Amino acid sequence: MRFETAKKQFGQHFLREDAIAQRVAESLTHHGGYRRVIEVGPGTGALTKHLLSRSDMDLTCVEVDAAAATQLRSALPEVEGKLVMGDFLRLDLKNMVEGSFAVIGNFPYNISTQIVFKVLEHRDHCTEVVGMFQKEVADRLCAPPGSKTYGITSVLAQAWYRMEILFYVEPSSFIPPPKVRSAVIRMQRNDVAQLPCDERLFFTVVKSAFGQRRKTLHNALKAHGGFAKGVPEQFARQRAEQLSVDDFVILTQAAAQKASA
Length: 261
What we know:
Blueprint: E1 14-15, H1 18-25, E2 36-40, H2 48-52, E3 58-63, H3 66-75, E4 83-85, H4 93-96, E5 101-106, H5 112-121, E6 126-134, H6 135-142, H7 152-160, E7 161-169, E8 174-175, E9 182-189, H8 199-209, H9 217-220, H10 233-236, H11 245-260
Helix pairs in contact: 5-7, 8-11
């Protein structure tokens, strides 16, 4: 398949090293017992061919670029019947697959964070994710509390998934080479069926707390629905980046109690 067809508007950087593609494919572990695997943006099929060779998986490829899909069918005829044309972010995954599933891909960097949020929407069914991300985004997703890169996506992803950086990939491994290093991460669904708080409010509190991350929580939350008045004393003088997922649960519970008072 021709690498020169990469399109900037789709954030395409095609993986050129077969050994790396194979390593990414082999990083799926069947965590949660799934068979169905959704590959986002198969592109040249570098990863696809290794996924197709696994008899323990039922593969569905989602491609938004019609030209890439045509080339993919030509290079890998066995993908016929497994290729869905469309924007992954707009697809109704519940109707597309039944039961638990995994998501994998050399994710387009311009939508990689949105892919994570799409996964979070389907956290009851998506039990594992293996993806290629821009290193900065991967580091942020996996960052621990107290880290400078710890933020909204860190908290929300880690609330429902165990996050792990598997390995880093150099720009020279892609055509065209991106201007940044990349990283492959694995997300595995944890044992939290439901947070012990209002989950919608949890999202709101986390996003509000990081809205002004340089300020203490008491000051950062002043402008957001009166949350500041419900901040537990032990958190009031801390900044958002210092709180763990469990701390944000406590903060959300306090905000809910204040709202109902």
